[in-house]
Amino acid sequence: MKPGSTVWARNIIAGVVLTAGPLALAACSGRDVGPEQQVDASGLVQVSPSGGGKVDPSLPVVVTAKDGGRLTDVTVVSDTGRQVAGRLAADGRSWRSTGPLAAGTHYTVKVQAANGDGDGRGGVQKSFTTLAASATLTAAMTPGDKALYGVGEPITVALSQPVHDPAARKVVESALTVRSTPSVTGGWYWVDDKTLHFRPKDYWPVHAVVQASFDLGGAKVQNGLYGGAPTAIAFRTGDRMLALTDAGSDYMTVYRNGQEIRSIPITTGKPGFSTRNGIKVVLEQQQEVFMNSSTVGIAAGSSNAYALDVYWATRVTWSGEYVHAAPWSVGSQGVSNVSHGCTGMSTASAEWFYSTFRRGDLVQVVHSLGHTMEPFGNGFGDWNMSWSDWQKGSALGRTVTTRPADPAAVSGGAGAGISGTGVTASAGYLRPSA
After folding, report:
1. Is residue 146 left, alpha or beta, with left meaning phi > 0 and alpha meaning psi from -120 to 50?
2. Which end of the chain has the lower number of beta carbons within 10 A, N or C?
3. Residue 250 CB neighbours (<10 A)
4. CA-CA distance, 238 to 235, in Å (whole number)?
5. Active-site position among 28, 207, 342, 371
């Protein structure tokens, strides 16, 4: 135990028991010492802020011993029970907060001190309130329904205010916590000023419990912006499901935990409408979706026009790529690519796929003439970025090794999680197969 720590401050005088009543001191000093006297400590210490008026939360709390006295214990705690970290000077003469103060919060400072002669000790209590924040930063996190997801599901954070300054981003990222059982190595990536994603280096383990939280404790983020209400999410993972979609052979091979369980004849995007290559994550599923080509710029009445109901639709991009039933193209499935970008299969195969896969499961397209799925903005293409590049997106420049999660965090959650995510499929965002 070294000078400068709060614990050291609390044990600086051997044999002292902190109570609300009179205190006694027994020590070997080479001479007889009578019982330590309880004294009025108000004259032994100076506390800043002093408590007059509202206090700027960016200022530190400073406690100083006077007249040769020394501090033996200092605590600063909010009305919500959050304690502010601090450090005691090596000589025991002063204490200074090292943790942030929250805006709009009432604090109590409790100090124990000994006088310069060493034969008296007492306590003093002060309080103050910090100024309210002009703006607060909160976060919406996904997935937050405690449901079962595939191993490719990233954690997302949508901030209520933009954060561009590198130092402020470090504050935000420091307030994010991820736990999982089993443990993983992962990292945060700043997509833009208001969006962060977290993914493991590899996929989540199968049958894992994952928790994530955001809690700034009211701390200052940047000028005029302080932490708001905390938030937390939890979810589980199922088996590792992968649909390897080969646009060259026109077959999809489905794997569960690395073992092939089915091969399905398919058709993907024809020239000019090629399906994106790369790894995609299931976003939502709907038994029926109406698709209209005019919403994506294909003129009604043209050779590529369509307007029809599509069944057993599993969505993998927000721009409208699905895996779905395409009974009109069964003759081409396993033979050639004739769709407008989706992966089409027989109705029976599409219903099986719909029932087998869930949000967060993986669909990987290879050998297509299309470009590679973008990492962000059109769904979850996070896995198309290399791990080395992903690490560059952290404001703190570090990876995260998760601590164990609490299994109780996912009790009582939504079921299998295979239904829609709450984002309604709109014809204006579809680029479907026909």
Report:
1. left
2. N
3. 21
4. 10
5. 342
**Where residue 295 sits, what CATH number does that domain have?**
2.40.440.10
Q: Would you call 401 exposed, middle or buried from its count of C-beta atoms within 10 A (0-12, 13-18, 19+)?
A: exposed
pLDDT computed for residue 301 by the predictor: 72
Sheet hosting strand 241-246, strand order edge to edge? 259-265, 251-256, 241-246, 362-366, 278-281
Range of the domain at 159: 135-238+386-410
Q: Is 423 helix (H, G, I), strand (E, B) or coil?
A: coil
| Total structural domains within the chain | 3
Prior bond to 154 cis, omega within 30? no
Are residues 64 and 22 located together in one domain of the fold?
yes
Reply yes or no on whether 340 is catalytic: no
Domain final residue, candidates 130, 150, 174: 130
pLDDT at 339 over 50: yes
Q: Which distant-in-sequence residues (6+ apart) come within 8 Å of 79 by Cβ? A: 105, 106, 107, 108
Q: What is the pLDDT of residues 100-134, one digit of tens each?
A: 899 989 999 999 998 877 666 888 999 999 999 88
Kindly calculate the radius of gyration of the chain based on its CA atoms and give it in whole angstroms.
Answer: 30
Residue 369, domain member (yes or no): yes
The rounded distance, in Å, linking the Cα atoms of 170 and 314 is 37
pLDDT in tens, 341-360: 999 999 999 999 999 999 99
- C-beta of residue 41 within 8 angstroms of C-beta of residue 123: yes
| 258, 275, 280, 386 from 365: Cα distances, Å | 17, 8, 8, 17
364 and 391 share one domain: no
342 is annotated as an active-site residue: yes
Do residues 197 and 250 share a domain? no
Give a yes or no: residue 415 inside a domain.
Answer: no
Query: Quick check: 425 pLDDT over 80?
Result: no
As a whole number of angstroms, the distance between CA 206 and CA 242 comes to 13
What whole-number distance in Å separates Cα of residue 166 and Cα of residue 18? 43
List the single range of 69-73, 244-248, 354-358 with lowest mean pLDDT: 69-73
CATH number for the domain spanning 113: value is 2.60.40.3780
Please pick, among 197, 324, 340, 371, the residue that the annotation labels catalytic: 324
Is residue 21 located within the same domain as residue 91? yes
Which is more confidently placed, 354 or 10? 354
Higher pLDDT, 15 or 387: 387
Distance (Å, rounded) from C-alpha 41 to C-alpha 359?
A: 62
List, as one string, the DSSP characters of 255-321: EETTEEEEEEE-B-BPTTSPPPBEEEE--EEEEEEEEEGGGGTPPTTSTT--EEEEEEEEE--TTS-
Per-residue pLDDT at 279 exceeds 90: yes
